[in-house]
Amino acid sequence: MSGTVVLEEKWPVLGRHVQAAWWLRVWTDLGRAPRTIDAYARGLAEYLEMCEREGVDPLTASRAHVGVYVRELTDRPSRRGANVVALDSGSSLANATIQQRLVPVRLFYDHLMEEGLRESNPVGRGRFTPGRRGGGHQRGLVPRLTKLPWIPTEWQWADILTVAAEEPVRNRLMLALAYDAALRREELCALRTDDLDPAHRTLRIRAETTKNRLERVVPYSAPTGVLLSDYLAHRARLSRARGSLFLSESRRNHAQPLSLWTWSKVVRRIALAADVPRFSTHTTRHLCLTDLARMGWELHAIATFAGHRHTDSTLRYIHLSGRDLADKLGRGMDHIHAWRIGMLTGMDAATAGTPQ
C-alpha cells in the first residue's frame, strides 16, 4: 500500500482533492521523511476541511479564505486543556504550531502556481523589499515569534544529574552523548555500532538521520568514552550483532533498536523526578551549543558542530550566551564543558578534558 493511500485513509479529505493527493505524492517520491509528509498531510487536510465547511474551492481560494483558517487555528481549544502552562501565540496553539500548519498550505499553493492553476499564492511569506516604508520588511501572514532556546540553570542541571546518576548505563551514556556531541533525538537514537570511532573518540552522524541531510563527524570526551566502553560490554550481553547502538531491554522489544518514543519517556521521567518539567530530549543540545558560545567558539565552528545549514539558527545560541559579557561573566567557562561531562559520567572534572 502506497504512502499516499495510507494518508488518504487517515485523512479522507485528501482523496477528494486530486491536486492535494498529487502534491503529496510528489513530495513522497522526492524522498521526504515520513514524519514530514505526515505533518504536511495533516496541515493540508485541516485546511481542505475548512474549505469544504465554507463552501470554497481551494483552487480559487483568496487570502480572506486563508484568514478564516488562521482564525480557526488561533481560536482552537487546546487538547491539553488546563495543562497548558504558557501561550506564546495569544491562543491555545503555540505560534510555532500555527506556523507549522501554514507551511503545507503555502507549499501547496506554490505547487498550483507551478502547474499554472493559479497566478498568486494567497498565503504569502515575509520578504524584504528595498525602499519599502518601515525598513523594507513585509510581515508574513502570521507574525513569527522567535524565542531563545531554554536551558536549565546550574541548580536545575545539578538536580537532573542527581536523578540521572541512578539511571542504567545506557541512559547515562545517551545523556552524555546528547550533551557532548549536541545530538538531536533522532540522531542519538539512530546511532549504529559502525558509526563509532573509539580510536579518535568521534561519532559519524549519517546524513539520513539528520534534520537537514548534512552528514558530520563530531567528537566526544574521554569520560564519555569510558562510559561508552561500559555500555558496549553491557550491550554484548543483550546482543552481539552489529547494528543499532542503543537497544531496548523491555520484555516485549528485548534487544530491538530503542525507539524515539522510549527515549522521550526516559527523559520525561528524569525531568519530572528532578522537578524540571521543561527539560526535554533537545535541552542537552541547546545547553551544549550555548556552552560552546560561552567558551568563545566562532559562529561557523558552532554551526558546523551542530549541523546547521545556515548560521541563523546558530546565532540564537550566541545571543543566549551573552558572549559580549564574556570578560565579566565568562572567566573559567572554557572548563564548563568538561565539568558537565565529568558530572554526567561520574569522573573528576579535572580529568574530564574537552572535545578535541
Automatic annotation (TrEMBL):
Its BP terms in the Gene Ontology are: DNA integration; DNA recombination
Has keyword DNA-binding?
A: yes
Question: Residue ranges of the Core-binding (CB) domain?
Answer: 13-113
Q: Which UniProt keywords apply?
A: DNA recombination, DNA-binding, Plasmid
Q: Where is this region: Disordered?
A: 120-139
Its transmembrane ranges are none
Query: One GO molecular function term?
Result: DNA binding
Q: Ranges for the Tyr recombinase domain? A: 146-330
Q: Which InterPro entries match?
A: CB (IPR044068), DNA_brk_join_enz (IPR011010), Integrase-like_cat_sf (IPR013762), Integrase_catalytic (IPR002104), Integrase_recombinase_N (IPR010998), Tyrosine_recombinase_XerCD (IPR050090)
- Write down the SUPFAM superfamilies for this protein, in alphabetical order: DNA breaking-rejoining enzymes
Domain of life per record: Bacteria
Write down a Pfam family by its short name. Phage_integrase
The answer to whether the entry has keyword Hydrolase is: no
Protein name per UniProt: Integrase
Q: What is the source species?
A: Rhodococcus oxybenzonivorans
